[in-house]
């Protein structure tokens, strides 16, 4: 399983539920008493589950990374554990849920089977289709470069990052009975006035830091050293254009991430 930093999880997960929490409707939170958030990371989803549970359900966060659990512990009880071998007895929860976890696991079906073991009722997965992310930007080159970089990165990733669109198949490979799958589009916008996160992201583009972080993965997917260097050069120029537009308060960006909520019954 890939490991992620606290900063990465905060940037990618925070804000997902700010505009609407309609995607949580299939989880039937009004009737839950104990909820387990597997792969909780910094607890972004755990916080939302606790806030949205009208019955005052106990929400427990579980993750293999102790550093991330220290952050999540500020809002919910946490337990260190592996998604394939959860440290809980059978039927310990009536809802087991994960967010953007299965796409990072080599064997999502095995994880779902383990989720089913510790759930007495529902198992749910909130998973994106990272292969279908779209970007619309006031910097002409950004959309095309984003697609090229994403394609090169995904070619080097060993797990199924598009699993969100086909999570039903993973559920059906387990004893779980699929109740429904719903698609939602999460839209992230950047526009004046720019927050600190947007400014930092622009600077990382201008320095090529983001591509540098992903260099090894991109090269393992078939991108040559020369192709990577060319891509990074274009990426840095695009980043400088973003910074320039930001200084003029002209930069706007809209990123759409399709994700799917799949719910199964034990």
Automatic annotation (TrEMBL):
Keywords: Methyltransferase, Transferase. Pfam families: Methyltransf_11 (PF08241). InterPro entries: Methyltransf_11, SAM-dependent_MTases_sf. GO terms for molecular function: S-adenosylmethionine-dependent methyltransferase activity. It comes from Halobiforma nitratireducens JCM 10879. CDD domains: AdoMet_MTases. GO terms for biological process: methylation. Residues 36-118 form the Methyltransferase type domain. This is Type 11 methyltransferase. Transmembrane segments: none annotated. It comes from the Archaea.
């Amino acid at each position: 399983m890939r490991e992620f930093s606290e900063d990465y999880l905060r940037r990618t997960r925070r804000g997902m539920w700010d505009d609407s929490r309609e995607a949580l409707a299939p989880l039937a939170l009004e009737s839950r008493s104990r909820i387990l958030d597997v792969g909780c990371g910094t607890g972004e989803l755990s916080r939302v589950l606790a806030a949205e549970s009208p019955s005052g359900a106990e929400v427990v966060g579980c993750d293999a990374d102790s550093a991330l659990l220290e952050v999540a512990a500020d809002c919910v009880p946490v337990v260190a554990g592996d998604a394939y071998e959860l440290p809980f007895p059978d039927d310990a929860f009536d809802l087991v849920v994960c967010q953007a976890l299965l796409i990072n696991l080599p064997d999502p079906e095995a994880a779902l089977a383990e989720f089913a073991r510790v759930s007495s009722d529902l198992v749910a997965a909130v998973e994106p289709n990272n292969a279908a992310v779209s970007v619309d930007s006031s910097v002409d080159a950004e959309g095309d470069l984003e697609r090229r970089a994403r394609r090169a990165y995904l070619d080097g990733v060993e797990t199924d990052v598009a699993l969100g669109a086909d999570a039903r198949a993973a559920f059906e490979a387990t004893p779980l009975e699929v109740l429904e799958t719903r698609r939602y589009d999460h839209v992230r916008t950047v526009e004046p006035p720019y927050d600190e996160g947007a400014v930092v992201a622009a600077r990382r583009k201008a320095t090529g830091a983001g591509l540098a972080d992903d260099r090894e993965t991109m090269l393992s997917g078939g991108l040559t050293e020369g192709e990577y260097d060319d891509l990074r050069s274009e990426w840095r120029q695009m980043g400088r254009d973003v910074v320039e537009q930001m200084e003029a308060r002209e930069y706007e960006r809209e990123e759409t991430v399709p994700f799917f909520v799949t719910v199964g019954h034990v």
